[in-house]
Amino acid sequence: MERTPSVDALSLDSLSVDSWLVSAGRERRAGAPLNVPIMPASNFVLGAGRMYARNEGVPGWEALEEVLGGLEGGHAVSFASGMAAVAAIFDQIPMNALLVLPDDCYQGVVALAEANQIRRGWRIERVAVTDTAGWVRRCAAADLIWLESPSNPLLEVADLDVICAAPRRAGSILGVDNTFATPLNQRPLRLGADVSVHSATKFIGGHSDLLGGVAIARDPALGADLRRSRVLAGATPGSLEVFLATRGLRTLALRLERAQRNAEVLAERLANHLQVSCVRYPGLRNHPTHAAARRQLAGYGTIISFDVNGAAGDADGVCNRLRLIQHATSLGAVESTIERRAVHAGQGHLPETLLRLSVGIEAVEDLWEDLDQALAVR
Ligand SMILES: *Cc1c(COP(=O)(O)O)cnc(C)c1O
C-alpha cells in the first residue's frame, strides 16, 4: 500500500507558507484519511516494500518530512529527538576532524562534540557567534561548521548569510541548528547551509508532549547518508511522535504569531522593569545583534533571556513565585516556561541570575501580571 504523495497537487511556489503548513503531507486519494493514522506496528507483511519500522518507517514519516522538506527546501529526515538528528550529522564527520562551534550553544551539542574529541580525536574550536570574520576564516579549514542562530540562551544572531557564503573545504558540512528560529523565521538552506536541524520537541510539536528531531539536507546524497545513520543507530521516531509533530506543524504559524507578539510586548516591559538589569531579545533595538536579526529573521522569536537584580537566590525566588508561567526547562510550547539557566552544566559563561523565558500563547496581560508580581521586591 504505497502512499500517494501530495506534492503533485500542491507546491510551495503557489501557496503561502501558512497554507503549506496546513495542507502539505496529506494524501489526496479518494477515501484517504486526512491525517496519517497512528500505527503501532514494528513489522509488515512482506512483498510491498515496507518490512520493518526501523528501516522503512511507519506511515507518517513521509508526511512530516514532506511538510518540513518543502518548507526549508531540502530533504528532510525525521529522528527520535533533536540530539539524534545532530548525532546523525556528526556521524558523517571523520576521525581527527576540525569542528567549529559557537561560544553560546545548546549544551547537548557541546557534550556530543566533546565526547567525539576523546573518542575520535576531533579538535574543537569555539568562536563567538558575532565574530563573523572568525567564522569565515575557519570555514576554509573546518570539517564541520556548526552554527546556532539565534543562540541558546543569549539569543545572538550570527551573520549566517555571510558565513554560509564563505568558501568551505571540500567534503565539509555546514550545519545550522534552526530550533530557536523555527522554519518560519529562517531557512538556512536558502542562505547556503548544507543542513538545517530542529528539535521537533520544541516549536514544531509545540505542546511539550513529544520528543522528536528533523534534519533537512540540501544535497540528496547527504539526506541519504543521514537516513542510513538513522537506521544504523535505530534513532527512528515512533508513530505517535510523528503524528503529534505533524499535527503541531498545522498550527505553527498561528502559535508563533501569537507567542511572538506576546514576547515583543514582554521584552519591552521587562527592559523597563526596575528589578531587571538586562534583557536579551533580538527584537529590542539595543540587542547586540538586532541588525542581523532584522536582516535575516522573519520574526524575532518567542524566547527572552533577562537578568534579575540580586543573586541566584533572587532569580530562583522569581521562578518559584510565578503562578501562570511554568517553572520548567525546554521551550517553544503553547504554555510559557521559565528557568534559571546557570543551574545546568556547561553554562559558566552565563550570569547566575539569567532567566530564560519561553513565551507561550496565553493572554499577554496575564503573563505580565504574573511576571510583575513575581518580580516585586519582598
Ligand atoms: C532542545 C534542543 C536540542 C536538542 O533537542 P532534543 O529534542 O531535546 O534532543 C538541540 N538544539 C536546541 C537549540 C534545542 O533547544
Features:
378 residues, alpha/beta, Aspartate Aminotransferase, domain 2, Aspartate Aminotransferase, domain 1, 2 domains, seven-stranded mixed beta sheet, five-stranded mixed beta sheet, 15 helices, 12 strands, 38% helix, 15% strand, binds pyridoxal-5'-phosphate
Bound molecule kinds, no repeats = pyridoxal-5'-phosphate
Q: How many strand units? A: 12
User: Which percent range fits the helix content?
Assistant: 25-40%
Look at the helices and sheets and give the structural class: alpha/beta
The biggest sheet amounts to:
7 strands, mixed
Spatial gap, N to C terminus? 65 Å
CATH homolog superfamily of the largest domain: Type I PLP-dependent aspartate aminotransferase-like (Major domain)
> What integer is the average pLDDT?
95
Mind sketching the topology for me?
Layout: H1 17-23, H2 53-56, H3 61-72, E1 75-79, H4 82-90, E2 98-102, H5 107-120, E3 123-127, H6 132-139, E4 144-148, H7 160-165, E5 173-177, H8 182-185, H9 188-191, E6 195-199, E7 213-217, H10 220-233, H11 239-250, H12 252-271, E8 276-280, H13 290-296, E9 303-308, H14 312-321, E10 326-327, E11 337-340, E12 354-358, H15 364-375
Parallel strand pairs: 2-3, 2-4, 4-5, 5-6, 10-11
Antiparallel strand pairs: 1-7, 6-7, 8-9, 9-12, 11-12
The structure holds pyridoxal-5'-phosphate.
